[in-house]
Amino acid sequence: MKLIMAVVQDKDSNRLSQALIKENFQATKLASTGGFLRSGNTTFLIGVDDARVPQLLDVIKENCKSRNQMVAPISPMGGSADSYIPHPVEVEVGGATVFVLKVDDFKQF
Ligand code: 2BA
User: Fold this and answer.
1) Cβ–ligand 1 contact at 93 (below 6 Å)
2) For ligand 1, is residue 37 a contact (CB within 6 Å)?
3) Phi/psi at 65 (5° precision)
4) What atom of ligand 1 comes closest to residue 33's alpha carbon?
5) Which of 31, 39, 50, 95 would you label with 64, given CA atoms 20 to 30 Å apart?
6) Rounded distance from Cα 35 to ligand 1 centre (Å)
7) List of residues 6+ apart from 22 with CB closer than 8 A
8) How far apart are CA 75 and CA 82, in angstroms?
9) Angle between helices 10-22 and 53-63 (to 10 degrees)
10) Which residues make beta-bridge pairs with 91?
């Protein structure tokens, strides 16, 4: 068994939830925050048999789009805020960031 942790953009989370239900995958959704952009995203925890991992990865891939997002940089530490002109930077976010972890044991009580 594997535990898939998938960080996806909030905009994709409903669509992915519905696709997981349709394909009969059990998932838990956690509200999370990206460390870099500090904006909300969604982390899915999905326990799945090894044989179904490729199918699950396809479902995630099909339902999560990558998008460009502008980041307003923070003013430099110790510098004068008056003279600082921020230059927004464009970053590409997601599709999905997916971690595949081995599960030693799985119990439900
Ligand atoms: P954030 O940390 O908010 O990052 C959003 C996007 O900003 C990233 O998209 C990446 O394109 C860019 N970015 C992140 N750190 C950067 C840096 N130090 N310099 C320049 N650009 C940077 P993704 O790579 O698609 O990541 C989307 C979200 O997935 C991340 O949101 C974070 O919540 C999660 N994530 C990505 N890699 C991770 C990792 N290694 N461990 C844990 N979570 C991760």
Assistant:
1) yes
2) yes
3) -100, 150
4) 33
5) 50
6) 7
7) none
8) 10
9) 140
10) 69
> pTM above 0.90?
no
pLDDT tens string 19-67 = 999 999 999 999 999 998 888 999 999 999 999 999 999 999 999 999 9
Each residue's pLDDT tens digit, 8-30: 999 999 999 999 999 999 999 99
Separation of alpha carbons 4 and 89, rounded Å: 31
- Domains of the chain (ranges; CATH) run 2-72+87-102 (3.30.70.120)
Does residue 34 line the site of ligand 1, with CB under 6 A? yes
Indicate the burial class of 32 (C-beta count within 10 angstroms; 0-12, 13-18, 19 or more): middle
- Scored b (16 or more CB within 10 A) or e, 62-97 reads ebbeeeebeeeeeeeeeeeeeeeeeeeeeeebbbbe
Whole-angstrom distance, CA of residue 53 vs CA of residue 103: 13
